[in-house]
Design goal:
Layout: E1 2-9, E2 18-24, E3 29-38, H1 43-58, H2 65-82, E4 90-99, E5 102-108, E6 112-117, E7 120-124, H3 130-136, E8 167-172, E9 176-183, H4 185-188, H5 193-202, H6 206-220, E10 228-237
Antiparallel strand pairs: 1-10, 2-3, 3-4, 4-5, 5-8, 6-7, 6-9, 9-10
Length: 238
């Protein structure tokens, strides 16, 4: 019922501050997580790794919103514990839990989740960013977020002062093929939603889907492009 694939790429940066991870429980349960560290000088790398470790290690096989929020709180506390006066590292995060036909996902920051049903986009998370606020105010369109001057100004992150507000969504998955894409901003900035859907239609498996989208990205990025990371999950519900 479940298949998944992931990749992470340093891009044109001196270090990779993205981290992706997943853990399974049996044949019908998975927890997938992608994090994008903020802080530089190695701090972002440590923050994103701590986030993925806390979520994956703490998951017990359920798909439940309060449980996911608790995992995010643990990740936040773990980051705060390793912060220093010189490096107040932080991390965005997006995570997906599936158990049978139950799914829950949550995010903090501008790492995104896209949900497709039978090849059609049915949901995507909204960034916790200055650019997303500009969309809500009618100043720019959703597509203009990708290269907006404030696109990197994140309003929520694990490790910030005070516990961040975690946004979650819970769904009972309808019959059909559900495809989920979790990715950092270094990925979604260069691959549009119609392209994600087209490559999904053409793909034989999750790895093929990621490979096709990544090929688009590599044709477009500048030499100093950001780290980019994506994780794909397919689940077939009879």
């Amino acid at each position: 019922m479940l298949q998944s694939a992931s990749y992470t790429d340093i891009g044109g940066r001196p270090r990779n501050e993205d981290t992706a991870g997943q853990v399974r429980k049996g044949d019908s349960a998975i927890c997938a997580v992608v994090a994008d560290g903020l802080g530089g000088h190695g701090g972002g790398e440590r923050a994103s790794a701590a986030t993925v470790r806390a979520v994956c290690n703490g998951w017990r096989g359920e798909a439940e919103a309060e449980g996911l929020k608790a995992l995010f709180r643990q990740a936040h506390e773990d980051i705060v514990a390793i912060q220093t006066p010189q490096c107040a590292m932080k991390s965005t995060v997006v995570a997906l839990e599936i158990q049978g036909d139950q799914a829950v996902w949550g995010h903090v920051g501008d790492s995104r989740l896209y949900h497709f049903l039978d090849g059609k986009l049915v949901f995507q998370t909204r960034d916790h960013s200055v650019s997303q606020i500009a969309v809500f105010m009618g100043e720019i369109t959703v597509d203009q977020i990708r290269f907006h001057e404030d696109r990197n100004r994140v309003l929520r992150a694990l490790g910030q002062e005070g516990m961040p507000n975690v946004e979650t969504r819970t769904e009972t998955l309808a019959p059909g093929r559900h495809a989920f894409l979790l990715c950092t901003d270094g990925f979604w900035e260069y691959v549009t939603e119609p392209e994600m859907a087209q490559d999904l239609t053409d793909a034989a498996d999750t790895q093929g889907w990621l490979d096709a989208m990544r090929a688009r990205l590599l044709e477009r990025v500048p030499e100093d492009n950001d780290n980019n990371t994506a994780l794909a999950v397919w689940v077939d519900i009879p």
